[in-house]
Model the fold of this input.
Amino acid sequence: MSADIRPTGGKLGVLLPGMGAVATTFIAGIEAVKAGLGAPIGSLTQMGTIRLGQRTEDRSPRIKDFVPLADLDDIVCGGWDIFDEDVYTAARRSGVLDKDLLEDLRPQLEKIRPWPAVFDQRYVKKLHGTHVKGGESWMEKARLLIDDIERFKKANGCNRTVMVWCGSTEIFMETKPVHETIDAFELGLMENDPDISPSMVYAYAAIKTGTPFANGAPNLTCDTPALVELAKREGIPIGGKDFKTGQTLMKTILAPGFKARLLGVNGWFSTNILGNRDGEVLDDPESFKTKEQSKLSVLDHILQPHLYPDLYGEIHHKVRINYYPPRGDNKEGWDNIDIFGWLGYPMQIKVDFLCRDSILAAPIVLDLALFLDLAHRSGMSGIQEWLSFYFKSPQTAPGLYAEHDLFIQLMKLKNTLRHLKGETLITHLGTEYYD
Ligand SMILES: NC(=O)c1ccc[n+]([C@@H]2O[C@H](COP(=O)([O-])OP(=O)(O)OC[C@H]3O[C@@H](n4cnc5c(N)ncnc54)[C@H](O)[C@@H]3O)[C@@H](O)[C@H]2O)c1
Done:
């Protein structure tokens, strides 16, 4: 039985709180693809295929031909930032894409200017925002965001919107009583509770306007009982946290391999140098703590030391991020992995990933926007665990550990699409070929 999926018809507004390196690389990338100046490499929705039925059937359509996704031509972008720079200027400053490409796309990019942001320096210590909203309380600010969204939808003829947080990493926060229920949270918004951060105000405004929300940073944001409950009540899909790009992507590719072959690991030292604004923000210990928790969690969950104490019971796992301006967005991530094999003999693996952070993140923004819109049109709401493929710290139901293994995450994502379309789920059992 296939799910009742509402057709796409009309424009999809993609709203981006935080129009820095990732968001501008995403927007410019969409424009480049539309203009035939580049290919959407790294995007499952644009380039991926999905096998259907038995291996002998030879049915592997493109994902975008299998499920109804918004077309790139129907995407309109808007967003907020604490600096009043249009997307062309912000993209130039971010230094990710070539100047020539940005020059070709200049007219489309210059047209997009961020709206004033909801911001408070208590939550991102390194930035001094100048382009920020007034409003006495968080609730008033949420209303101003809701006005922005409604105005944008009307001006661009959008019948649907999705929001992907691409703003800076906020300080480390934990769930407090104000996050426990919708009532407590709404009271907190009215009373300016300090345990509510700007990203939570955006998530609230998104849900209240029927806009699915994904969190690309490790902030707590919508990972609270109150916002999960609100999302379910309003029928809105949400997900997070923290785009899975460079070093953590590598970790979630390598670690499942070690575990599959029962190779022991007793040390994993990861260090990064990066020089973009994200690196500057993460130079603050409180923002770094949020990121560190997100980066550290993956190994434990993949390697399951409680099940394999002899192999993974004593891992020294360290993550360092160093702000080093000469590198700009072209991060370098080094990993030294100490492993051991037969009879405990030690070996080492060194990974030196000279990556480009925003080049890896942009296709994730696109896929999350399109899949969240699909989920919404399919009547799905609350946490979308099938999208954990894209996150370093996937949000899950309470009490459930997150699945970090990239390959299990991909299988889950594709099986969800098969399920939506009433296709047989693929288990890889395969006995039928030998009967
Ligand atoms: N690039 C990656 O590979 C990657 C991977 C995982 C997570 N992330 C996260 O994605 C986010 C964006 O990364 P980036 O490289 O584009 O950083 P960036 O610093 O270039 O962009 C972030 C933007 O958010 C703006 N901002 C901060 N607070 C805001 C607020 N309250 N409202 C609106 N705008 C606000 C900043 O002014 C800045 O322009 C960061 O939190 C980063 O940690 C990035």
Notes: The mean pLDDT is 94. The pocket of nicotinamide-adenine-dinucleotide is lined by residues 17-23, 80-83, 94, 117-119, 124, 127, 166-169, 198, 216-217, 242-243, 245-246, 276-278, 281, 357-358, 360-361 (CB under 6 Å). Residues 18 and 166 are 5 Å apart (CA to CA).
